[in-house]
Specification:
Blueprint (H helix, E strand, L loop, with lengths): L1 H20 L9 H13 L2 E2 H8 L3 H13 L3 E6 L2 E9 L1 H22 L4 H20 L7
């Protein structure tokens, strides 16, 4: 059936993109470390407790991940001045640059996938993808930004 083949092809493309462009898939870091970086980029400075709650893991697990990210130069940890029990975590400039580099790498990879298509084919693909994404959004299944 054509629909099943299309779904299979979409899944294969999804996995290809993730494998080729995702830092976890390339063994640069653990999934938890990656999600910590994404959260910090999206929400700014957060406490260890806030990160643990959002990720649904223990504070000690977040602390361990943050220490590793700090050694990599991607985050800094600071004790809150009015309550030293609270440790706040923020992305460093290097952390911001690393996330940007991953995104640029992913964009370059995707651009390469589009090169066999002429402008008309790319426009058709864009229209189709917009329709699929609009449907996903209406069904409450749109991807996270």
């Amino acid at each position: 059936m054509a629909t099943e083949r299309l779904i299979d092809d979409m899944q294969m493309l999804y996995h290809l993109i993730r494998r080729a462009s995702h830092p976890v898939k390339r063994a640069e870091m653990t999934p938890e470390q990656y999600w910590l970086l994404r959260l910090l980029r999206r929400r700014g400075t957060l406490s260890i407790g806030e990160l643990a709650e959002i990720l649904g893991v223990t504070g000690s697990s977040v602390t361990t991940a943050c220490k590793r990210l700090e050694k990599m130069g991607l985050v800094t940890r600071e004790r809150q001045s009015d309550d030293e029990r609270i440790v706040r975590v923020m992305l460093t400039e290097q952390g911001h640059e690393q996330i940007e580099a991953w995104q640029q790498g992913r964009r370059a990879f995707l651009q390469g996938l589009l090169t066999p298509l002429d402008q008309e084919q790319q426009a058709t693909l864009q229209d189709l993808l917009e329709r699929i994404l609009q449907e996903a959004e209406q069904n409450g299944t749109a991807p996270l930004q």
